[in-house]
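Q: How would the C-alpha cells look for this protein?
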Amino acid sequence: MSTGSSRAVALALAANGGIAVSKFGMFFLTGSSSLLTEAIHSSADCANQMLLFLGMRQGAKPATSKHPLGHGQANFVASFLVALLLFSAGGLYSLVEGVHKIRHPEQPHLLGWAVALLLFAVALEGWSLRGALRAAESERHGRSLLHYLQRSSRTELVVVLAEDIAALLGLLFALAAVLLTMLTGNPVWDGIGSVAIGLLLIAVAAFVGVEVTSLLMNEAPPLALRAAIRAAVDEDQAVDQVLNLVAVIVGSERLMVALQVKFREQPSGTALVEAINALERDLRRRFPQIQHLFVEPDES
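A: Here is the predicted structure in C-alpha cell form.
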C-alpha cells in the first residue's frame, strides 16, 4: 500500500468529514439548496475514501493459489464503484434537487453565513488537493495533470485528485449561486447552482469510470515504459533479439511482463537457464513495478 496514496486519502477523508458536518449545519440554518447538494457531495466523498481504503487494503494482500497474480486489481474495483455508485448518485441527486428548486424556488436566508462556510470549505479542499498533488509528484515526471490522470495506475490517487478538483469547482459553483441569490434576491440561482454541481459530478464520474474500466480490461502500461523494458532486454549480452513483449497493469504500480526472447548460442541448457535468471534479476532491479515476470526462450 503506497504511503503517499494512503496519506492523500486520509487527508481527503479528514477534509470532507469536517466540510460535510459544516455544510449540513449551514443548510439547516439557511435552507440553501446548493449547500444541501454540496453537503451530500461531501458525505459521498467520505464514503468514497472509506471504499478506497478498503480497496487499498485488499489490493495489498499477497498472491494466492486462487489469485496467482495477486489482488492488485481490488484498487481498480473500488475506484470503479466510487465512480459508478457514489459520484453518479451524488450527481443525479444534485440534478433532481436543482430542477426542483428552479421549478419551486424557496428563498434561503442568512446567506452571509453560507458564504463564510463556503470560503472555509474552499480552504480545506485546497489543503486536501495540495496533499494529493504532492503524493502524485514522484510519478508525474513533469506531465500535465490531465495526462497523469489518464495514464496513472494508482487509481486511488486518481480518484482523490478527481474528487478534490470536483469539490473545489463545486464549491465555487455553490459560492457563485449563493452570491447571485444575495445580489438579485432571486432564489432560482440557488437551484441553478445545484444543477451545475450535479452536471460536474456526473462528468467527473464518467471520466473516472472510463479510465478505471480500461485498467480492468488489462490495459498495457505507457509506451515509453514498454520501450524502456524492451531496451533493457536488448542490452543484455546474452540476448540476440526480443521477439515479443506483453506487459499488463495488474494493480497500482504493478506489472505482469511476459517476454519471448531469442538468446545467443549457449554452451549448455544450464547456461541458458543462468542467462534467463540473470536477465530476470536485472529487469526486476531496474523496474521494481514488475511483480510477475515470465521469460520464454525461442528461436523465431
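The longest strand covers residues 239-251.

The beta strands are 239-251, 254-263, 290-297.

Upvote if useful.
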